[in-house]
Amino acid sequence: LSDPSVPPSGVSCSGCGAEMQCGDGGAPGFVPADKYRSLLSEGPAGLRGAVCQRCWALAHHGSALRLRLPPDQHRRVVSAALRRPPRHGRGPLLLYVLDVMELPDPVLPQLPALLGPDVPAAGVLVVGNKVDLLPADRRGHLGRLRQRVAAACALAGLRGGALVDIRLVSAKTGYGMEGLVSRLQRSWKCAGDVYLLGATNSGKSTLFNALLRSDYCKSRAPDIIDRATVSPWPGTTLNLLKFPIINPTCDRIFRRQERLKEEATKTEDQLSNEEKKCLNQLKKQGYLVGRVGRTFQQQKSSTEIEFDPDMLSYSMDEDPRDPPKKHEEREEFTHNEVKDARWCFDTPGIVKEDCVLNLLTEKEVKLVLPSHAIVPRTFILKPGMVLFLAALGRIDYLEGKKPAWFSVLASNLLPVHVAMLSNAETVYEKHTAQEFLKVPMGGEERMKEFPPLVPQDITLKGIGTTEAVADIKLSSAGWVAVTAHAEEELLLRAYAPKGTALVVREPPLLPYISTIRGARIPGTPAYRTKKPPSFVENLRTTGS
């Protein structure tokens, strides 16, 4: 399939930004040699807009081909990009994207070292992403989330003039995106290019795609620039992808504000059937939903990642005897459109160390990373009881005088089981890598390479029966919020796979989450689950 004699193309994959080549099947940007030659034979436009074999596999099968990447390649690419000479006489604006569920963000403290003293940045705008996945535990939960993000920024040394703003969004459902676009447009006069930074799986590429389809991007760019490959597999973006930022002139800002005012007066009943269908689908996926529109060009409404089969660089069912298909003429930017443009770059995600996702297969990653709104699962445990989160985490309630509540916030696909401490080891040994505990999967052979669970003792003091005292965060598998009677001391022992981070998060992210539950299920320690309703911003409710 590979042919080392053919030189690299000099053309970037439109999905991940890697230079396309057919010489090394284990390196980024690989295209099978026959397909590569076929695309080259079609002239300069042949490779432009195509995707590599890896991006094709991610988009169509959700599988990532194993690549040989130096451990620090992502950091090198990002660091080198940030050290480019400033354009337009202004330093870059850094758009740091963090997953609010991952607080405290493991990469944020590395940001000063990544930038170094010689990067004259215009500032850092921190975007807390994936807020749509978290249920509202009480009125004002977004304000409390923002405070947690601000505390993480201060801990990392981001404060004062260096921290431009903090925004909470969902790049997937569109919540908060119009507000983010407005805030970015207000930074036009004091910033040059914009760089999206963040850890793997923080949602950078999804945010990049959302901005590409918004008023932040030049009006013709969505027709010319392909979207970044979006997948739960960590480290999807291998190089720099970019789009040109539109100049927010007074006229454009006025027209945009008029559009936003008009859309805010609409009710759901006034939306088109296509808009209603899209909205209902997003409401099933998240608690918070937004409508992202375009002022300067009609936008096709779609919730799927669009890949034109005729433009793909690789096809599993392609018959090599068929003549190569002709590509349609692609639009291109004119020289005047981009000669003085400012660009928004999507950068490779910084790989999180001590992360359980690094130990998992692609099938396991899909089960562990939440893709829909998390439904909290609450259990009441007495001393001597144990809670399992799949086979990725375990919490033993060792000592305490009264029962305590343990609320699990993790992917709805991960099983939670409660056992007695006396037979916990038997449960783990019997059901690990089996359907009962689900992840890891693959039986005894899988467990030979999976690290053992290691313990950490934790002492907590309760503050009341409706407010959690702390979260026990089991790396990226999820967390358990612990709620106990006031002044009640608990001795817990938490387990996570060896080499992964187990964090006690105080204060908890959603302190009142144990109240989001149904009635107790008779004869069990579990409560019935309760899913709060979804909220759509920029849409008038009927009767208001």
Report what the structure shows.
- With 544 residues, the chain is an alpha/beta fold.
- The protein has 3 domains: 1-68, no CATH class; 71-265 and 335-353, Rossmann fold; 358-532, no CATH class.
- Helices cover 23% and strands 19% of the residues.
- The chain contains 14 helices and 18 strands.
- Helix 4 links the parallel strand 1 and strand 2 (123-129).
- The longest helix is centred in the first third of the chain and has 15 residues, at 141-155.
- The N and C termini lie far apart (62 Å).
- Residues 194-244 form the G domain.
Number of domains: 3
User: What's the CATH topology label of the largest domain?
Assistant: Rossmann fold
Overall mean pLDDT stands at 84
Question: Mind telling me which CATH architecture of the largest domain this is?
Answer: 3-Layer(aba) Sandwich
Instruction: Quickly give the structural class.
Output: alpha/beta
In short:
With 544 residues, this protein is of the alpha/beta class. The protein is built from 14 helices and 18 strands. The chain starts with 32 loop residues before the first helix and ends in an 8-residue tail after the last strand.
Defining traits:
23% helix, Mito_transl_resp_regulator, 3 domains, globular, single chain, six-stranded mixed beta sheet, 14 helices, coiled coil, alpha/beta, NOA1/YqeH-like_C, GTP binding, 544 residues, Rossmann fold
Question: How is this fold's topology laid out?
Answer:
Layout: H1 33-40, H2 53-61, H3 73-82, E1 93-99, H4 111-115, E2 123-129, H5 141-155, E3 163-168, H6 177-186, E4 194-198, H7 204-212, H8 221-224, E5 241-245, H9 250-264, H10 273-285, E6 288-289, H11 335-338, E7 342-346, H12 362-368, E8 377-381, E9 385-389, E10 393-399, E11 404-409, E12 416-420, H13 424-431, H14 443-449, E13 453-461, E14 468-474, E15 479-483, E16 489-497, E17 502-505, E18 535-536
Parallel strand pairs: 1-2, 1-4, 2-3, 4-7, 6-18
Antiparallel strand pairs: 5-7, 8-11, 9-10, 9-12, 10-16, 11-15, 13-16, 14-15, 14-17
